[in-house]
Amino acid sequence: MRKIITLMLLIVTFTMESKAQILTPVKWKVTCKKVSEGVYDIISTATIDAGWHMYDVKLPEGGPLSTSFNLYKDETSGITLIGEFKATTKAEVEKSEAFDMDVRFFEKTVTFVQRIKVKDDKGVISGYVEFMACSGGQCIPPGEAEFEFKFPYKEEVPKKK
């Protein structure tokens, strides 16, 4: 009986430790907002835990992984991109000792917006955001957040409590 209890305690301890080690310092919310007839903004907002930062788009070669917005071409139809994903928040710039270059990054929160045109008011946009976050000398492996919107799009109405 004592061996069974010891074994159970070890299993519970290892399970709790493995869950505690999964770091998710960046949470994404991707929404869609109608701007005018057939024109929409895809709004990607990252909330970054205190003490962590996430990198900007289009960083120089040899640096950290840039945040990138990737579309599944075979799943995206009837959509024309207007420009590219752009941050609405100004990035901070700092000389990185690890990469020996100036890097641009965000702390706390950042929003990226991509304007799109929907042909014939029908279409699908599907893809994912790829990003990397660091805190001091610790970085998480690159993460992804998927999104998909079908058009014509109906914005969600908040439910009353």
Question: Could you explain the architecture of this structure?
Answer:
This protein is mainly beta and 161 residues long. The protein has one domain: Sandwich (Immunoglobulin-like), CATH 2.60.40. 12% of the residues lie in helices and 50% in strands. The strands form three sheets. A five-stranded antiparallel sheet has the order 6-7-3-10-11, with no helix packed on it. The protein has a four-stranded antiparallel sheet with strand order 1-2-8-5, with no helix packed on it. A three-stranded antiparallel sheet has the order 4-9-12, with no helix packed on it. The model is unreliable at 5-10 and 12-20 (pLDDT under 50).
Overall SS class: mainly beta
Bin the strand percentage. Answer: over 45%
Oligomer type: single chain
Per CATH, the class reads: Mainly Beta
Give me the number of helical elements. Answer: 1
* Rg value: 20 Å
- H and E order: HEEEEEEEEEEEE
On the 0-100 scale, what is the average pLDDT? 84
CATH topology: Immunoglobulin-like
The CATH superfamily is identified as Thiol:disulfide interchange protein DsbD, N-terminal domain
The tally of structural domains comes to 1
Helix content: 10-25%
Q: pLDDT under 50 segments (min length 5)?
A: 5-10, 12-20
